[in-house]
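Exercise (ungraded).
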Amino acid sequence: MSKSDVILKIYTILLLGIIYVPIGVLIVFSFNNSRNRAVFTGFTLENYYRLLADERVWSSFYNSIWVAIVVTIASVFFAILLSYAVTRYDFKGKDILDMLLLIPIIIPEIVEALTLLLFFIIIGIPLSPWTIIIGHIAFDISFAYLVIKARMAGYDPQYEEAARTLGADELKTFFRVTLPILLPGIIAASLIAFVESYDDFIKSYFTRPGGFSTLPVHIWSMASRRGVTVDLNALATIVVIIAIFFAYIRIKMERWM
Amino acid sequence: MSRLEEERKPFHIKILDRIRASKLLKIIVLLAPASIFLAIFFFSPFIIALMYSFNMFKQVVYTYVFVPRISLEYYIRLLDFPGIFVTMQRSFYYAIVTVILTLLLSYPAAYYIGFKLDPKYKSTAVLLFIIPFWVNFLLRTYSMKFVLHDEGLVNTLLMTLGLIKEPIRFLGTDLAVIIVMAYDYMFLMFLPLYGVLEKLDKELLEAAATLGASPYKTFLKVTLPLSSPGIIAGSLLVFIPAVGEFIIPMLVGGVNTTTLGTLIYSFFITVRGEAGWGIGSAAGLIYIIFIMVLSYLYIKLVGAEVQFG
């Protein structure tokens, strides 16, 4: 190993360490007994007790979960139909469709959110949890589509042809052959769609009705106050642990696929 | 099947049969749900926003009606907004500095992991790099408040080492916004860089060395040009969200860190009403057009790169 390689190695290890520091600090301060200072004054579990007794945290957590479940089911359903059409049939405008489906991922979310809000106002649809769900589905279709299409394009259509030869009609073939083969892709897509919705802040914030908050919206209302409040740290610690759990499942999934 | 039997079939079965028989109908049935959904709830809102920004809707009591007129009022009011040019300039400044910082910070690591590290450890190293970025964006940003606070980690460290006497005031300044943007967006630069460097043919470097090039020269003349698609992709991936960022300037910035993003946010959320939404959507559309131009240039540039390689 040359000298420059050693320097590179040390640098990489340092960088990998430093990017964990802010999150580590966040967790450490969730046990701080001083409520609004960035100095560690003593260990306490008080912040967690207060958090778990907070009605708003629970309701926003519950909202995030059910919104994400509805969003996931709808967007994965749409994505399965789309991927099936794109990988099994030839038609005009396929490339354009493929490109159009990338747009919801590329467009900055703030613009997506404001145009959707304006749309609801002009059309006269009152804001409700369903307006949030609609907004989330609009970008989640693309995420789910990319994953499921990749899985669909990656396996041999001969399995389907064999089933057809043996006398199964197209619907039966789809449910008995295609869907089981697609399952890992569908699970991976569901996981990504769920996390994207559960984690979303901008679209939820713009298209939510007054008084309705998801977890990220609640986090924002706490984080955008001046200074620091350790109340949020306890919540953050739990959310971070959930995020790492999701990350772990995602890695397992990738190995499995 | 006799003709009679065919006619006796219930209506919905007839429709299903028709769909089964025609390939075109099948494709339509498969594509329709998502296409209709996205047409209504993704693409048409952009058209509505465009029309709104040109003042083509009028509020009548609680509803909005279409008025056939085109007025640049909202765009003019946006350009008349006090400090608008400073704000735009600041957004660009933040985004460009963030791109440069993330590039400088992640290139050596992407180079080491993609190029020098034992292939056995590569995927683990990449994973270690991206795990922090799976944590919610708001929380990642909020966590930096603790690091940059007057009594925070950085100031405590610098004071303990005796490098400074008074704490450096980070929060509320440009510096804080830039540091946090670099932290939050680094992985968007790292991933494409790693992708390119990992695939780079090592024999090319050996060839350069055999021909007498110094490692320094090999890097400048071979590695760096060949990794430029990654640099361009990463720069774009960082620049697009960075130039419209509103969460970071609002959380760690102050009164002097308004950006294009915070402006759009305040028009829509704080000002509200016809004027707020009109001016806000004018700003949003300018942002979108700018991004489309950039993406187009990117496709042109990288397309040329691919042919070159």
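Further reading is listed at the end of the chapter. For now, observe: Residues 204 and 249 of chain A are 25 Å apart (CA to CA). DSSP finds 13 helices and no strands in chain A.
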